[in-house]
Amino acid sequence: MPEAMIASSEQSLTPERERREKLELNKLQKRLRREVGQAIADFSMIEAGDKVMCCLSGGKDSYAMLDILLNLQKSAPVSFELIAVNLDQKQPGFPEEVLPEYLSSMGIEYHIIEKDTYSIVKEKVPEGKTTCGLCSRLRRGILYNFAEEHGVTKIALGHHRDDLLETLFLNMFYGGKLKTMPPVLHSDDGRNTVIRPLSYSREKDIARYAALREFPIIPCNLCGSQENLQRQVIKDMFQSWDKQHPGRLETMFRAICNVEPSHLADTSLYDFREGKRLGGKRQAVNTAEPEASADFGRLDVLNI
User: Fold this and answer.
1) What's the rounded Cα separation, in Å, for the pair 119 and 214?
2) Could you tell me the pTM of the whole model?
3) 89 and 112 Cβ atoms separated by less than 8 Å
4) How far is Cα 88 from Cα 94, in angstroms, rounded to an integer?
5) Using alpha carbons only, what angle is made at residue 35 by residues 180 and 194, rounded to the nearest 5 degrees?
6) Quick one: average pLDDT of 78-94?
7) Beta bridge pairs of residue 186
8) What is the crossing angle of helices 203-213 and 3-42, to 10°?
9) Please, what sign has the CA dihedral across residues 47, 53, 55, 58?
10) CA 54 to CA 35: how far, in whole Å?
């Protein structure tokens, strides 16, 4: 086929491809709106007058969460405020101009908190060991303190359905506990309430939505590849299941929303002698004091 004809054929496909992608984007946005709206309703995540702080990392999940919440805010039956917050952890090569430029274009109130947690993590964690635990503790402690100082009533994190399932299996396989990240988590001292609006949403839908919306993704370079992370092992297992057994992950998620204490073995949840349910152990945000060398104020650590 002559080159001119090939070029003409490719150009003729472009409008059709754009049309398909526009339809796909519209379909995904409606699905995510519906799922986020349902999660908010089911777990009473957002109420009238709330000031919701969307924690942005620069990854696909937090971008999608902010985008959908902004969309829902326009038609929500209750009035609530949204602000965006990013913690610049001073990672080498971090493109610190990306998020301010994006958030300015969105016209939303935003704050960039600058704290060098990178140096602390590199100093405290031995080479080759997983950095995620300490990094997340420092990051969340700083964000939670900021929320209290600025009158935030709800802290929105971008964890999705797959994160909840992965955490469930991580706790079972490596922690000996049957628990995951709940859609809503209250602190013991009443300082913070964490919400996860994407709890009903699939990671693959969020990833595709982010690609179609062309969010300026910022990768996390602090931990490097760390290919042997326990979470990655679980993630790979889930991806295999999703391909070989479509619908299995959906069924698994329904299971954590449909718990029967009498058919487990936790005596704090069920009185097997009397045959009745009990209150169980209350899980919430714990607090911990940071080391004196790190001047970050009190740290709030999610009990996950």
Assistant:
1) 31
2) 0.83
3) no
4) 8
5) 45
6) 92
7) 193
8) 130
9) positive
10) 17
